[in-house]
Design goal:
The structure is a homotetramer of 342-residue chains.
Chain A lengths: L2 E6 L4 H10 L5 E7 L8 H4 L11 E2 L11 E4 L5 H8 L5 E4 L9 H8 L6 H6 L1 E2 L2 H10 L2 E3 L3 H16 L8 E6 L14 H4 L4 E2 L8 H13 L6 E6 L6 E8 L2 H11 L6 E3 L17 E7 L5 E8 L3 H16 L15
Chain lengths: 342, 342, 342, 342
């Protein structure tokens, strides 16, 4: 059976990634596309790499006809999403890729995003979209909140050992190295090629990165008590990929076992042999996650490495994985593309 | 129906690209893999980005069992291929990705490759593998010779206008800008990241590049008289992609029309509107070709731009497209993956 | 003797490059800096790589005091320059890095820049700043017009063989591969890292690039009759560097001899042995030019390759070289820094 | 006064960097160059970016005449250095850039490098070359051991707060992101452009990186008791630069004050305002170090960021800084070149 898809905010990178992945999905077909400033253009004009695909024109959201649409992916900017989704037919299944519905507690939302939530009822309804940990809830959900890409990478590393009780909870340090596409297609000086290439550095330091809101929420839930990790992302001169190094206390073998066991049946998560190191390029363009565990020289110290492609497993691939569950497709449908290498 | 595939030389980039593409092909299954120095390893060790795929182990060619194999892709180094293929069962369908069978005339082979051909009977049998121009011969062939990646790009640009008689034949200049993966995974100083990134330059200059042998053969055939173009490739700090600028005499509209007409029904070739410029990144990781035509300010001068991914349409994608024809699959099977962007 | 320098438009790449080079110049000292939107900031805030240098604050042009300033470098946007320079004290020596004073004929300016020149008297006074060809005029000039970076690269390749009469004038094709810093620090989508890296393509095609105005002016002057070349620049995923391939008719040895002879005494121009190929990275960050000449397989066909760093020899280095002449310093003062490699 | 320099191992990146820097040094002149496999070639053939500099030919070490040489820079591979230096005239001042003389304790050397030291007397004589902490010893030394580039970056971050007693000593975690030139010009698969670009990952994990030997030695000395940090380097797709994030316990203001005070008079070290983040590109090609300190959200947690160019301050620039002290030149002579940006 083929379901009809609408993509709101199709002119950004996550929108284009949705179209790329859906193009070879056996059960999804794009029927409506919205863009704001680029309404009236074709997708081929905005993203010429998609010109071989037969696609509807870019329209404003107001122009779209949602009759016959089974599922709507919202790839809109943060804050815009909550206003737009409030106006959509409430029978429509929705996967939101913005940050608007990731935090369950309105107070948390206000703390991290600086203003009250505009659609608290929807916020309450939304299911957090990290598939491997919310599979059953997602299957039953109408509105799923895609996770932050950094937030996903950290959780893949740490949720199983936290749940298994094999790592300390008060001295977790996460150091991430992130490709630039996570910042989107926005015109900012620091995203220029001449500024970024051949240089790298930390950003969002000092506990200020908003994905900490997700870490706090999910790690505390997994631990059954408040957990606040330390987190520093870095901008790397590459387009796709997140490499997370999580420095923890705990026995390496126990940590490795907790991860291997938790992910034993997961189709997209590969736990490497103890001591092996993943690389971002080994998952680039794919929905896979590679995880490695290393024993430090100090007794009881372990480092967990995880890699994802921020646009795929960190965003649009995750969204389709969730849509597959919501619509009754095979969870891996359209998502088994191998990474592009080199 | 599923056909069984052997890949010889699976530890190089074209071998890995074959595995990547076949992984989502509905009618092909990899049953045997050879590697020379890396025999005994798994593909996941050599290319960890393929670790989620169930694959046979890497063996030496001598260890392989060809019973039950329907088609063999030879991704071996130049000169090795002709020796190996001579020893393969002569009932096996073969797509060779090396340069060994591209030139039909033994004298041409010796001129460009510096020694006599070791398998002249096979050389005679081989069909030149540029699908769009040899479709019927390939369908009937047992042995198909994959083309040079630069050679393919130049021919996509020039064969239709040459055939249509709309460009001059004696003043064609082709300037190409090539990503580094075309040079393979070999350990050469100029291929190091520290040497290549942030710099670019011409190589194989002065009429010395071996793909000129293919240009001479195919352009002369298309024109019905000898044609010798001028060709200069450049190495660019990027991994995948070839951008060809062909400077010709001829009327822009006539050139554009000849290309648009020739490729009107081609599933992988997109001729852009007159004046539009293709980009390598718009075909990266895909089997597509984008072609643009521009009118120069001087009357009667035209420039033709063409882009391909050297590892896909320039090599492994082309090989699968040919295999599809040889085995009776839909020509586009396994090859409709959209480019990876960004 | 130390001369005092003002830099107008110091917040762009050419402004920063001027500061970098002047920092080790024995006879120049920066005394005034202007920026428009960034007035009020320090140079260390705008360009932290310069924070170890003692510099004046960024001010608006109106706030600057030109008393005591010996020479002013104008690194302002095109069209702004002519308005600003008209208002400067007419005793001030000026090197303008914009396009405003490169074309001597008001009609040519209007043709290429789309509106009449606002300071025709200054336009008449300005000397074209390609040092190697206008050395004596520059020495005596008050106002020197820095050349286009592409225009410089093409002229270094072609002026000597044109003057020597050893190449054909009616079939010159120049294909250039340009780093992105030539486009400046402006916020344009195609300059984003995610858009540019891993892809390359032609731009300004079809005779539309404004540097053709300089080519027409200077090549015609060198030839003593109208010359209109064909020119196609390409954007390359690298920050600094221009690689020019000029395809010409002419005997390779004669072309090589013309270049070698013309540049025999030039401190910044290296003509490589016949057949050798320059690389952009071999001049990156320096004021040097490397030139190579190659014989094509077709008799009477020659290709000339030239490389420069667009920000140094193509802009700010050239500007200082001219200032050295204007102020009586050694021509190479402050400019003998070796390229940065790797 | 001009001193005569010999460089052993001039065909590697640190050799080329020494030549680049010495080219504008007022008091040093290169008089002898050695290379092993490339003996007989000119430096211009091995590194065309240096072709404008008048240099002696590359010879084998045996062919070199050390009469008249004042100082010798040894840029030889690890283990080779100790054998070669033993044979040099013992009146010659030497700066060794290898790892051979960095560890003072023969047992430490054997532990980290896997075999006994071949020149224990020299090992005893050698002074550790981190200029800012061994200035007086270096001034008097005959043999100075250049530090590891990672080791230098970590020490710049941590020695002052360790000495000041403002950070915990038992939970220091250093996460580094390193450009590829630190691995030299060696032909290894993982250093190829196609392998490295667009991907990043950790290496030398689990306490196995040899620079830990230097950290243990120097941090323990600074603390007055054994200190063993946790250290994970990452390979980044860039050529030059190291970014170190050191995660420590301690009050941010006290840490910042310790660093600011320690480096107040240092010509090459810039401590940024509290909360500011350095970038590798802001020191690229220069001898400068930028250091930033950030307060984490957890009370008593601080992160220290430091950047250097591994080939300059991390190796060849540091070597010249030390040579300046050993020869009585101004410590900054030849080293005030501003970074190259962009």
């Amino acid at each position: 059976m083929t379901h009809s898809v609408a993509i709101l905010g199709a002119s950004g990178y996550t929108g284009a990634e949705l179209v790329r992945l859906i193009a070879t999905h056996p059960g999804l077909k794009v029927r409506a596309l919205s863009a704001d400033r680029k309404a009236g253009m074709t997708m081929a004009e905005v993203f010429p790499h998609l010109r071989h695909i037969d696609l509807p024109p870019l329209q404003t959201i107001d122009e779209l006809d949602f009759a016959g649409i089974d599922i709507c992916f919202c790839a809109l900017p943060h804050a815009t999403s909550q206003a737009v989704i409030s106006e959509l037919p409430d029978t429509l299944k929705i996967v939101d890729l913005s940050a608007d519905f990731r935090l369950r507690d309105p107070a948390d939302y206000e703390k991290w995003y600086g203003k009250p939530h505009a659609a608290p009822a929807l916020q309450k309804e939304a299911v957090y979209g990290l598939t491997e940990f919310y599979r059953e809830e997602i299957r039953a959900a109408r509105l799923v909140a895609g996770t932050g890409c950094n937030a996903a990478t950290g959780q893949f590393s740490l949720i199983p050992p936290i749940r298994a009780g094999v790592i300390g909870l008060d001295d977790i340090v996460i150091d991430m190295k992130c490709g630039v596409s996570g910042a989107g297609r926005s015109l900012k000086e620091n995203l220029l090629h001449a500024e970024l290439s051949e240089g790298w550095y930390a950003y969002g330091t000092g506990g200020g990165h908003r994905h900490l809101g997700e870490f706090d929420q999910e790690f505390s839930k997994a631990a059954g008590r408040p957990v606040e990790v330390q987190f520093t992302p870095h901008l790397i001169p590459g387009n796709r990929g997140i490499f997370a190094a999580s420095y923890v206390s705990g026995e390496p073998r126990a940590v490795h076992a907790a991860l291997a066991e938790a992910y034993a049946d997961e189709p997209f998560i590969e736990v490497l042999p103890l001591g092996a190191i993943p690389q971002t390029k080994h998952v680039r363009g794919s929905n896979f996650v590679h995880i490695g565990v290393v024993a430090e020289r100090a007794a009881g110290r372990t480092t967990i490495f995880a890699v994802i492609d921020n646009l795929t497993k960190g965003s649009s691939g995750q969204a389709i994985q969730n849509a597959n569950l919501m619509l009754g497709h095979d969870e891996t449908a359209g998502l088994m593309l191998a990474p592009l290498y080199p």
